[in-house]
Design goal:
The complex is a heterodimer of chains A (282) and B (270). Chain A has 282 residues and is mainly α. Chain A has 9 helices and no strands. With 270 residues, chain B is an alpha/beta fold. Classes of the chains: A mainly alpha (282), B alpha/beta (270).
């Protein structure tokens, strides 16, 4: 009987530890499962605040111009550089593939269609994310952790109106502009590779491109670009605006912003495509 | 409270009645509570802030000083309690009324919180450009006047990163005072500064009070500064005000935590 006593007292202790561990694991799992919804609701809340403050004066034109310059003008080189190589590699692959069944004349048409509808908006948005999105998160995050955003509040200046609205508008306007640039430079890159390096007829290349690609294809790409422009700037601003934990916290926020933006671009791409085409829903 | 607006972008405070201007108590903090989840940080804080005096709120780290400051300037909303500023309950204001009332306060943050992408001049001019219709020349005159009064006019075209800690504090005070706020709040203004710069910042607080006739609220745990500048002192311990009075009175407080803090700081008024 005396030997059994420690066992009897240890068993409830062990089972209570197990219960606590199971509860912790359950809470962790629930948190992980709910986190995407929490994040999306936070994004919509910030978007709502931006719309609310965006339609109210004062309208600070200088900040809009600066944001457009940073997102748009500052991304021209990167977008052009990637467009040349994306167009070039598309031409290489398509000419090589189409030659197997004598359809290489369709290269210009397919490249034009792919760039206008998909590749242009997706790549332009990804480039804006990598260059401007990460920089926006870092800038706003640094402002948050050094109390500069609090300072704006204490000076009776709404920080969403001052910091977020100009960036969102710039994303909405400039990503479509960059998409058009990507399309033009991408076609030029493809034309050079297909015609100058692989010997395709230039007239046929451009004729098939003009024959297949019309305004509907371009507008589909531009609608996507506007959606992506808002999404990537919103994610970048949300992560920076609510960053915490000093320099390390700003680094984590920047990392989250880039990953979330890339995922959002690809998910929204499918969503907008199915909405525009009217098919592909579950 | 009614907000006076010349248009939607210019928020101005209503004029104060004479009896409020003469009230020696500028801010009445009454039974303010603040929780973060299960953590009860402020447990019914009540204290008075005296008009045109230097009021210090001191206490050990983790006592809730910064949380109290964030409620006072409404960076956060208290769970309950009153923040009566000129007899208006700041805790209950929202939207444009809150924004207008914020102009009563100027805030000097611990790390100054100057906008690092702007020059010193633009930092100080920022509130004026946001809230007034002054011409470019008038803005320049007002900003240079403040910078000269605080001895940093020579740094007008420098970036904050090019200034020493003490100079950054001066610029932060100039920015906080540019709209002629009635109350200046300093959050741990001397933390991390060397003794000479600490003394300079203490002088600056007294100087700002004399130059601009403001009420100063200083959140600190630096007892050397307390002795130098405090007119009135409140001791915050574990989210409650445990002692209040002149520095002399607090040095002789019988409250155990207050007495222990005073003893550990090895400060005497002699």
């Amino acid at each position: 009987m005396t030997d059994a006593a420690p066992t009897a007292s240890a068993t409830p202790e062990k089972s209570s530890k197990l219960r606590a561990a199971a509860r912790d694991a359950g809470e962790w799992l629930l948190k992980v499962l709910l986190s995407p919804f929490v994040e999306i609701s936070a994004l919509f809340k910030l978007l709502w605040e931006a719309v609310f403050w965006g339609i109210r004066p004062p309208y600070r034109g200088r900040l809009f111009v600066e944001a457009m310059e940073f997102i748009g003008i500052g991304s021209i080189f990167l977008v052009s550089l990637t467009a040349v190589f994306v167009g070039g590699v598309l031409a290489l692959q398509l000419v090589d593939g189409f030659r197997d069944f004598g359809a290489e004349n369709q290269t210009g048409a397919v490249i034009g269609l792919a760039l206008a509808r998909e590749v242009g908006p997706v790549f332009a948005a990804l480039m804006v994310t990598s260059r401007a999105g990460s920089a926006m998160t870092t800038e706003l995050g640094s402002m948050r952790v050094t109390n500069q955003i609090d300072a704006l509040v204490t000076m009776a200046v709404n920080p969403v109106q001052y910091l977020v609205v100009p960036r969102l508008v710039a994303g909405f306007v400039m990503v479509p502009v960059l998409t058009m640039l990507f399309n033009v430079v991408g076609v030029a890159g493809a034309f050079f590779v297909a015609v100058a390096l692989l010997g395709l007829d230039p007239g046929v290349f451009m004729d098939r491109l003009k024959w297949l690609v019309d305004w509907d294809d371009l507008s589909q790409g531009l609608i996507k670009a506007m959606v992506f422009g808002v999404a990537v700037t919103l994610i970048a601003c949300r992560q920076g605006f609510y960053a915490k934990g000093g320099a390390a916290g700003v680094g984590r926020a920047t990392n989250r912003a880039v990953v979330q933006s890339a995922i959002a671009i690809l998910m929204l791409d499918y969503l907008v495509t199915s909405l525009v085409l009217g098919e592909g829903f579950f | 409270m009614k907000v006076f607006r010349s248009n939607l972008m210019r928020l101005t405070r209503p004029p104060l009645p004479a009896q409020v201007k003469d009230d020696p108590i500028h801010v009445r903090i009454r039974d303010v509570h603040k929780n973060y989840g299960d953590h009860h940080v402020l447990k019914g804080v009540s204290l008075d802030v005296y008009r045109r005096k230097t009021n210090l709120i001191i206490g050990p780290s983790g006592s809730g000083k910064t949380v109290l400051m964030r409620q006072l300037i409404r960076l956060e909303k208290p769970d309950s309690g009153e923040l009566l500023v000129n007899d208006v309950d700041f805790a209950k204001l929202e939207g444009l009324n809150l924004a207008a009332m914020r102009r009563t306060f100027g805030m000097v943050f611990q790390m100054s919180a100057l906008f690092d992408s702007m020059t010193v001049f633009d930092n100080v001019a920022f509130p004026v450009r946001e809230h007034t219709d002054l011409s470019r020349n008038e803005v320049r005159d007002r900003v240079m006047d403040r910078l000269s009064a605080l001895g940093v006019a020579g740094a007008a075209h420098k970036l904050p990163a090019e200034l020493s800690g003490g100079m950054q504090k001066r610029v932060a005070v100039a920015r906080a005072m540019i709209l002629e706020s009635e109350i200046l709040i300093y959050d741990e203004p001397t933390t991390g500064l060397d003794p000479i710069t600490t003394e300079m910042v203490d002088d600056l607080i007294t100087e700002a009070e004399e130059l601009f006739g403001v009420t100063s609220i200083v959140i600190s745990h630096d007892m050397a500064s307390v002795v130098r500048i405090a007119d009135h002192l409140s001791f915050l311990h574990l989210g409650e005000i445990t002692a209040t009075g002149t520095p002399q009175e607090l040095l002789h407080s019988e409250h155990p935590a207050t007495a222990e803090f005073m003893r550990a700081s090895r400060i005497s008024l002699d």
